[in-house]
Specification:
two-stranded antiparallel ribbon, elongated, mainly alpha
């Protein structure tokens, strides 16, 4: 559905497809800056939620010295054991709660 919208920057009327990324035909300004800001804020919130529920494990690089890789493997083992125990306890609480 095509429509027209008055540009908030130059005051000219331009074709508007009701998309936040539509630009003015005359000055190339964004026709709906509020909608674009809302969309960007929503994308940032989604990215923050995605990052909030991830567990970053220790990265073992093949070009590290042997002793660094050895200690990183020990740390990774503790990290995996901790995540496993916490996951089991959360599962047990969920099962017992019904």
């Amino acid at each position: 559905m095509n429509a027209s919208k008055k540009c908030p920057h130059c005051g000219q009327w331009s074709a508007w497809n009701q998309s936040p990324h539509d630009r003015c035909e005359h000055c190339q300004g964004i026709l709906d800056p509020d909608a674009l800001a809302r969309q960007q804020a929503q994308e940032e919130r989604k990215q923050e939620e995605k990052e909030r529920f991830t567990v970053d494990f220790i990265q073992i690089n093949p070009d590290d010295p042997w002793f660094t890789r050895f200690f990183k493997r020990i740390g990774l083992g503790f990290q995996l054991a901790f995540v496993g125990v916490v996951s089991f306890l959360l599962w047990l609480i969920a099962v017992l709660a019904g």
